[in-house]
Design a protein that fits this description.
The protein has 409 residues and is an all-alpha fold. It has one domain. Helix content is 70%, strand content 1%. The chain contains 19 helices and two strands. It has helices spanning 2-12, 15-27, 45-64, 68-85, 90-99, 101-111, 117-130, 133-141, 157-168, 179-186, 189-210, 219-238, 243-262, 269-298, 314-327, 334-349, 351-376, 393-400, 404-408, and strands spanning 34-35, 40-41. Strands 1-2 form a two-stranded antiparallel sheet. Helix 10 (179-186) packs across helix 13. The longest helix is centred in the last third of the chain and has 30 residues, at 269-298.
């Protein structure tokens, strides 16, 4: 184990070695084995797919980012996230969960351009540590042992509530989401990509672990949280003039649907939540990438000033169009497949829930189309490098999962 950690620390100072090392490390997860005395435990292929997405996004960031410091901090976040997915004990599970916050703080304080980055750091630290304290309390009082696979025992409703607060912050759900738009607005582009594409999946994995301990009593509370996240944040997106803040609230909407899938208590619910997390990870990364490119050109994030890019780069506009239509679940995207199945579940279980989900789809379709049209229409004289859009092609393939056509043919 010490040799493995030593190799990882050496690879941190060289991006290419780090990328290829973790690429092969994730591929070993398909062998379903345990390494280093339980320190790394491959217990589910779902976590292998999430770690594959993390390393894939890291490769995209390394190609598109010129700052070595931001790439180094991105490598740290990916390393902590992959170890979090494969943690073999309760304590390591919490340690790697909290360690992902430190590189984000360094990126905020070191590369943020406005004074409000300090208040954003306060919000991030407060929400993460304060709501993570119940997890440590229950760890020391109830299950003070080191090895685990899942929470495969039933617990009371109050116990589940306090235990889930630690992970609902990183989803995040409505009422616990205040830190995310502030951090996104003040963070540099690559940090926002890591935050939306990888760090928001930590809360999903944490809830994935404890979902087995949920019983059917008290699920209405989580239904309320998820539906409020979807509905309220969709309407908030319609009132945003800052495009980066709009993308942040859009992430809260999608992760609310992920929470609804995880607690659905049906056979395909957890699988569809995994597919939703994968689809949201690739889509949100490209959304923040395009918004960052537009900001570097026009020096503004206001929706009114980001116009006329269709007349400058058709390829850039095509990729942005594909990303935005994937944001509201366009057919052939992997998010459409998962959301369609969960929409059938909502219509078959609760008709009132189907009504709320329908409102969510309607509003998300509206603001996605509105942003896409505003970015295209207008006159601008700035120039966009079409070569940089070629980097997005690999993520576009993952968003729409063109491997399906192999089975169709």
């Amino acid at each position: 184990m010490y040799l493995f950690l030593f190799v990882v620390m050496i690879c941190l100072f060289d991006y290419f070695f780090f990328f290829f090392f973790f690429w092969f490390f994730v591929l070993f997860g398909f062998l379903d084995c345990s390494w280093f005395g339980g320190f790394v435990f491959f217990d589910s292929l779902n976590f292998v797919f999430l770690s594959f997405m993390s390393v894939f996004v890291l490769g995209f960031i390394g190609l598109s980012e010129s700052s070595g410091s931001l790439v180094f901090y991105s490598c740290l976040i990916v390393m902590f996230s992959v170890f979090f997915f494969y943690s073999g004990s309760f304590l390591l599970f919490y340690i790697f969960y909290e360690l992902t916050m430190l590189p984000v703080l360094f990126c905020l304080l070191g590369f943020g351009r406005q004074v409000e980055k300090i208040s954003a750091c306060y919000y991030l630290i407060f929400y993460t540590l304060f709501f993570g304290m119940p997890y440590l309390f229950f760890y020391s009082r109830v299950f003070f042992f080191l090895n685990f696979v899942y929470y495969d025992f039933f617990m009371s409703y109050e116990y589940i509530f306090f235990l889930s607060l630690c992970f609902l912050v990183k989803f995040p759900v409505y009422f616990l989401h205040v830190w995310l738009p502030k951090v996104h607005v003040e963070a540099p582009t690559k940090t926002s990509m890591i935050l939306a594409g990888i760090m928001l999946k930590l809360g999903g994995v944490g809830m994935y672990r404890i979902c087995k301990s949920l019983n059917f009593s008290g699920l209405e509370f989580f239904y309320f949280f998820s539906l409020m996240s979807m509905i309220f944040c969709s309407f908030i997106c319609m009132t945003q003039s800052d495009v980066k803040s709009l993308a942040a609230y859009s992430s809260i909407c999608h992760m609310g649907f992920v929470l609804l899938s995880e607690i659905s208590m049906v056979y395909y619910g957890k699988s569809m939540s995994l597919v939703m997390m994968l689809g949201h990870g690739y889509t949100s990364v490209l959304m923040f990438y395009f918004i960052g490119e537009f900001y570097h050109i026009s020096n503004s994030r206001l929706l009114y000033y980001l116009r006329g890019y269709f007349s400058m780069s058709i390829l850039f506009s095509l990729f942005f169009c594909l990303v935005m239509v994937s944001n509201f679940g366009f057919p052939f995207s992997i998010s459409f497949f998962s959301e369609y199945l969960m929409l059938n579940w909502c219509s078959s279980i609760y008709y009132v829930m189907f009504f709320f989900v329908f409102i969510y789809y309607l509003v998300s379709f509206y603001y996605s189309i509105y942003v896409m049209v505003c970015f295209f229409i207008g006159l601008k004289v700035n120039y966009v490098f079409e070569v940089r859009s070629i980097f997005c092609l690999s993520l576009i393939f993952m968003i729409y999962n063109f491997f399906w056509f192999v089975f169709i043919i």
